[in-house]
Structures are given as structure tokens and as C-alpha cells.
Amino acid sequence: MSTESLRIVWVYPDLLSTYGDRGNALILARRARQRGMPVEVLEVRSDQRLPATADIYLIGGGEDGPQALGAQRLIADGGLHRAVAQGSVVFGVCAGYQLLGNSFFAKGTRYAGLELLDITSDRGESRAVGELAGDVDGRLGLPPLSGFENHGGRTHLGPGVAPLARVTAGVGNDGATEGAWRGKLLGTYSHGPALARNPALADLLLRWATGVHQLPPVDDTWPERLRAERRAAVAAARG
Amino acid sequence: MPLRAKVASSVSRTAAALSRAAGRGDGSVIGGWIGLKIDPDLLAHLAAGRAIALISGTNGKTTTTRLAAAAVGVLGKVATNSFGANMPTGHTSALAKAGSTPYAVLEVDEHYLAQVLEATDPHVVALLNLSRDQLDRAKEVAMMAQLWRAALVRHPDVRVVANADDPMVVWAASPPPTHDHRIKPPTVTWFSAGQRWHDDSWVCPECGSTIQRSGDQWWCSGCPLRRPQPHWVVEDDGVLDPTGAWHKVSLQLPGKVNIGNAATALAVAAEFGVRPVDAVSRLASVTSVAGRYAQVEREGRLIRLLLAKNPASWLEAFDMADLAPTLLSINARDPDGLDTSWLFDVDFAPLRGRQVLITGDRAYDLAVRLDVNDVPFQHVRTFTDAIRAVPPGRLEVIANYTAFQDIRAELDRVN
Question: Which residues of B touch A20 (CB under 8 A)?
């Protein structure tokens, strides 16, 4: 953790903020403050330099054009690569997840990714839209993932990463696995404010960033009710 | 009208009446659907011979359509789809029901603008705004702007009334540059009504550079796209017309956003030759629009209904709501969009300091959002519970589409 306060960077909200992506920054900041940590949230637009010294970087979803542009600017900027080399946490969602990989498709063209995660994305035959749920990699010690996905990509995992979860509802990477992680980098197709439904995942990112192994509990009455309701909805849809 | 169209039109009217009698909504969709089955060109046949205005955009189209119909009414009878049935079936039904009228003002779902332009050959098209709305099934904003632009290029003779404050709309209304001198640029009348929501237009749709903003002005940092000089401008509680004359706008509808809708309506009417001075007083005849802004008294509570379907319209609803107990209701059924992520695009902080109640199918999504936003709230199971949880006096209700319809049904389909 850098100096006095936890620094969270929301990367390129002008390009990569399609639907409620701000939520992840708000949720992390709130959960940190509830534990008495001072927090600073920086919104860094795509015409600004990306600071390399923050603790957590959040990359949201976006349309094809902005995704391609965002990846090009992040590669040219180099700040995110330096931050990762120094041990910063990165959380990528949807388009932001894809662009962390080796390459992705946008507007019918293959674009180079940041090569921070060993994943490769291409186009699926159909768009994946709906509830997404999965059992998370046991090493992360998290309850099941709950989210909503809306993407046309299919993502193939290389040996350098582990899947975040095994899909129990929805599509995720390919219908079998969902998301990917290595070290302190984690990506998911659970789009937008993914942390709203996954408070334990938010706390994992905070633990990674701070090195604190156990965070004091906070009141999660509403997120837990939301999770239970979504779990019931997914079960009911399955029949 | 060809015989087939006459039959289709008559069957369409009957079906709509049956649907209403059966208590199945306003009947405008089913009536139009049956009519179009009998004569696929029915909409074009019904449109022929009328001077038509189309009103489209993400937000404000139902209200603006109602206001524009009132303004054009200075000239004569106006057909309009005033129940918000804004796809071709709704247009067909509205025109069939109205019989022969010299004018029509039609609200058009933004996805259907190209198709309805083709079928109705309108005199004028008004483009209000484009912002994120139901992205799990709707087109993304830039793609929508592209579709509008392509449709307008195919109709160079239509007059366009467009929002100078929305970069996506300005780009859609400005055709791509051409060296073909036979193609004349369209006639665009620009209006400015102010815009609270900017989060879908930071990236230039023409060149991908950043859009810069300062005060009312905006411009692209990488290409010539910039805010055009508006001809109609909202100023205080009135509208400046292109001649520089200011008209006070007295409405029965709340909020600055509706003054903007009134300005657009006057600009549309002016394209038919209506002078704003003749039309402005007629705007006050519009009270509520398909239940929006309706006020109802129940158990000593004066309830007002505000519809808010997407982030931009929530910001406008907060501006309209009085400082009074407020019920928020959220569903995520098919017409609403299945995804509730947009709740995090709305800053609910303006609701701090008042009693806030929440309900609806997706109240828990809203609960998590309000919790993160430090807005205290109380969850209630039903609308009746909400009424009983607040003291007598004003109760503001802000709801998204089907949640709004549910509450409207509890209030006996108030209009």
C-alpha cells in the first residue's frame, strides 16, 4: 500500500464506463473507509498519464471502438505495466478484462492486448446476455460469483492464468470457465458494478492491496439479500 | 386509400377497442399489429396526405410529442400516438384511429426511426438526445447515432430539429462531408435546452478524440465537430425564438427539462409555420402524459408519479421532485431491461435529507446502491405499505417503466 492512503485509479472512465462501472470504485472506497482506511479515488481520463504508483486499478467495460482505443493508449502509456511490476492490484471487467490479455477482437479486427494476463479473446457465435454465476477457484476462498454478463466475446485461457470460476449459470469465458486471475490481477465477464453482488471479492482486492490478511467485518445485510435473491432467480430460471 | 388499406384500418380500430374493453392496456399496439398483418404498407397508406412530424430520442419523446401535438394543433386536427406506443404498430393504430387529419405528430422509438422515416415521409424530424438505456438489448449509443445519420442521409429533404447540446445528436444530424454538389445539406434547426447527462459523449463519434466542455459549449479536440449555434434556446422559464423574441412558458409539468421539451415542441411547430406566440399558451393544456407527472390523492397522501427509465432521466426526476418523502421502485422485466447495473451511473445523493422508501422486484439492487451512496432508506413490500409509511401530504414516486405501470395500475390507470 502506498504512503498514507489507499489509492484507487479508475482507468479511462471516458472510454471504459458503459454501464455502472463507477460502482466498483465506489464500493471499494466505501469498504476501505468502513475499515478506517483513508482512500483516494483518481479518475484518469484517456488523455491523461496513468500514475504508476496507485494500489488498485479498475478497468471497466466499453464498446468496441473505445475498447480498442483504450488498449492502444494503455500500451503507449506504459503506466499500468509499471504498476503491475511493482505489485499493484488490477481488476478488469468485460472489455477491460479482455484488453488485459494477449489479443481481442473489436469491430471485426484483432487488436493487441496488454499481455498482462495469458488470455486470448475472439468472437462467439452469439451474444452472452443474462445472469452469470460460478464456483470460484478454491484458492481464493470466496463464495460463489454472482453477476450479469453482456458480451460477444469468447476467451481462451493460457497456462499462465487460472480461471476465476467454474460456470454454473451463463457463459463467462466459454460456457465452462469464467474470468481469469494470476498474482494480484483478476478479470471477469461479470460486467459493470461486479463488486456490488460480490462483496467478498471486493475485500479480496482490498486484502491484496493492503497486505492485511483479515479485514474487520462490515454490515453486508443488503448485498447478502441481493445475492440470495439472484441465486433464487437463477435457480428458478433453470427450473 | 386502397381497399385493402381501408379494411386493415377498420379492423385495426376494432381490435384496439376490443383490447381496451378487455382491460389489456390502451389497445394501440395490438390494433396496429393486426392492421399491419392485413396490409404491410398500411402505415405508408395512412401517412399519405398528412404533414407529419416524428419525435425521437432516448428521453422526453412522449412528453415532447404531446406538447408538439398541442402546438401544431393551432393549424388544425393532429393525429398522435399519445400513449407512448412508439413503434410502427403504434403509429398505424394512432393514424387509423384518428381518421383523416391534415397533421400528425408521432413519437418514434429511436431504433425504428429509419423504418418510420421510410414509411411516413415526414415533413420534420426532431432528434432530442441519445444516452445509455437498457443496454442488455438496446443498441449502444454510438451505433444508434450511426443508424440515425444513415437514415437522414437517405432523406435529404426532411427538415431536422435537433439538440445542439448533445454531441451524438449533432453528429447524427450532420451528414458526412461529400464532394457531390448535387447533394444538398439538410436544413437543421438547432435547439438548446441544457443537458445534465454527459457520460455518453466524452468520445467524438467522428474521430474518437476527447470532447471538451466549458459552460454550454462543447467541441472535439481532434476534428471540426462542435456545438452549433442554437436557433431556439431555453432561458429562465421561457424560450428565445430564432428572431430573438422571448416567450414565457407556463406548463402544468414540472422541471426545467419540460421547458426544454416545450422549446423543442415550438421549434417543431414553427417548421409547419406556427408562430410561437400563437402556440405557447396551448402548451399549458398538457397536464400529465400517460400517467407521467399525474397527481392522485390516496389516504391523505398527495401522490405524484415520475417516470425515470435510465440514468439521464433519473437526474431529471431528482430535479423535478419536491423535498418530500420519496418512493423509488425498480423492476428489471423485459421492457425495463434485465440489467440493473445502471443504478451505479445515478448519483442518488440529492435524495439525502428526505424520507426514502424503496420497493419493486429489484429493490435489493437499489438497496445496495443507496447503501454505497450513503442515502438512508426503508424497504417496503408494496405500494400500499409505502403510503402508510409516510405522513399525510406529498409523496413523490419515481419508478422505472414496469414499476411505474404497476403503481399506475394500483391507482386505477391514472392518466
Answer: 341-345
| B4: phi then psi, degrees, rounded to nearest 5 | -60, -40
ipTM of the complex: 0.96
Round to whole Å and give the CA distance between B64 and B71: 10
Q: From CA B397, how far away is CA B23, in angstroms rounded? A: 24
Q: Does position B54 have pLDDT exceeding 90, yes or no?
A: yes
Between helix B311-320 and helix B256-270 the angle, nearest 10°, is: 110
A151 flagged as catalytic: no
Same domain, B140 and B196: yes
What count of residues does chain B have? 415
Q: Is A75 helix (H, G, I), strand (E, B) or coil?
A: helix
Residue B415 lies in a domain: no
B101 pLDDT higher than 70: yes
Structural domains of chain B, count: 2
Domain residues for the domain of B367 are 295-410
A67 in contact with chain B, both atoms CB, cutoff 8 A: no
Q: Which of B211, B368, B371, B375 has the most A C-beta neighbours within 10 Å, making it the best mutation to test the interface with A?
A: B368
Specify the pLDDT at position B291.
75
Q: Where are the domains of chain A?
A: 6-238
From B267, B285, B303, the end of a domain falls on B285
| Cα B134 to Cα B25: distance, rounded to the nearest angstrom | 22
Residue B25 lies in a domain: yes
| Cα separation, B360 vs B307, whole angstroms | 14
Catalytic site residue from B199, B236, B334, B339: B339
Q: Please list every residue in chain B whose beta carbon sits closer than 8 Å to the beta carbon of residue A192.
A: 339, 341-342, 344
B410 confidence band (pLDDT: 50, 70, 90):
confident
DSSP B86-151: -SHHHHHHHHHHH-S-SEEEEEE-GGGHHHHHHHH--SEEEE-------TTTSPPHHHHHHHHHHH
Q: Is residue B309 part of a domain?
A: yes
Architecture per CATH, A6-238: 3-Layer(aba) Sandwich (3.40)
Regarding whether B185 and B331 lie in a shared domain, the answer is: no
> Mean pLDDT over all residues of chain A?
95
Residue B382 has phi, psi (to 5 degrees) of: -135, 165
CA B333 to centroid of chain Cα atoms: 20
| DSSP letters for B196-207 | S--TT-SB-TTT
- Has residue B401 been placed in a domain? yes
Residue A135 β-bridge partners: A166
Q: Is the pLDDT of residue B200 over 80?
A: no
Q: Does residue B339 share a domain with residue B279?
A: no
| pTM score, whole prediction | 0.81
